[in-house]
Amino acid sequence: MTKYIFVTGGVVSSLGKGIAAASLASILESRGINVTLMKLDPYINVDPGTMSPFQHGEVFVTSDGAETDLDLGHYERFISAKMNKNNNFTTGKIYDSVIKKERLGEYSGQTVQVIPHVTDEIKLFIEKGSAGHQIAIIEIGGTVGDIESLPFLEAARQMSVSLGKNNVCYIHLTLLPFLNSSGEYKTKPTQHSVKELRQIGIQPDILLCRSQKEISEDEKRKIALFTNVDYSAVISAIDVDSIYKIPLLLNEQNLDEIVLKTLGSQADPPDLNDWKEIIKKQENCVESIKIAIIGKYTDLKDSYISLNEALSHAGLDSSAEVNVEHIDSELLEKDIGLLRTNQYDGILIPGGFGNRGIEGKISAIKFARESNIPFLGICLGMQLAVVEYCRNVLNLKKAHSTEFDSDNDFPIIALISEWTDDKGEIHERTINSPLGSSMRLGNYKSKLIKNSKIFESYKNEFITERHRHRYEVNNSLLDNFENTDLLISGKSSRGNLCESIEIKSHPWFIGVQFHPEFNSTPRNPNPLFLSFIKSCISEKVL
Ligand code: GLN
Question: What is the model's pTM?
Answer without folding.
Answer: 0.93
